[in-house]
Design goal:
By secondary structure, this protein is α+β, with helices and mostly antiparallel strands. The protein has a single domain, classed as 7,8-Dihydro-6-hydroxymethylpterin-pyrophosphokinase HPPK (Alpha-Beta Plaits). Helices cover 27% and strands 23% of the residues. It is built from 4 helices and 8 strands; from the N terminus they run βαβββαβββααβ. Helix 3 packs antiparallel against helix 4. The N and C termini lie far apart (47 Å).
């Protein structure tokens, strides 16, 4: 029997603006792999200005594509939170600086609206720092709620923050 999960992919946004930002992103990718997630592709790293009222250093951001076998969406979110915890993420200031931030952006066409998991990510379509790296690896990915591609979302985004490919 063909299972529809056969071609499902999930997308995770990674961000860091404390300590060794590039090292933190690499450790997060490794952490996802150690948590039995199949990391298929990762975007380039992008240096981005913080979208926050809190004064803080610039971020490095990227997006990872996760393939089969995929854990259930809630299980995947729990594993991402564990990777954040193991890399020293402390949630003390909302939208404050952080060693690592992992956001589950999309999980196939799955939609969820619980306190624990919102899918697709509720602010994905508003954030240039997420859309630029996502479009790099999955331009034709369709947003399940808006029924348009990520490339189209990027073309219409109002966010004018600076997002530039990072070269170490």
């Amino acid at each position: 029997m063909f299972h529809r999960n056969h071609v499902t992919k999930a997308y995770v946004a990674l961000g860091s603006n404390l300590g060794d930002r590039a090292g933190n992103l690499l450790l997060a990718v490794r952490g996802m792999m150690e948590a039995a997630m199949c990391v298929c592709r990762v975007s380039s790293s992008y240096e981005t200005e913080p979208v926050s009222e809190v004064e803080q250093p610039p971020f490095l951001n990227m997006v990872a594509e996760i393939g089969n076998p995929l854990p259930a969406p809630e299980q995947m979110m729990a594993r991402l939170l564990r990777v954040e915890f193991l890399l020293g993420r402390i949630r003390d200031v909302k939208d404050g600086p952080r060693t690592i931030d992992l956001d589950l952006l999309m999980y196939g066409d799955h939609e969820s609206n619980t306190e624990f998991l919102m899918l697709p990510h509720p602010r994905l379509h508003l954030r240039r720092f997420v859309l630029e790296p996502l479009v790099e690896i999955a331009p034709h990915l369709t947003h399940p709620t808006f029924q348009c591609t990520c490339e189209e979302l990027l073309e219409r985004v109002d966010d004018k923050s600076v997002v530039k490919r990072w070269v170490p």
